[in-house]
Amino acid sequence: MTNDGRITLAQLVSVLRECAGEDEGVDLGGDIGDRTFTDLGYDSLALLETSARMAERFRLDLDDDVIGELTTPAELLRYLNDAPVKPGEE
Question: Which of 4, 30, 50, 82 is 20 to 30 Å from 72 at the Cα level?
Answer without folding.
Answer: 4
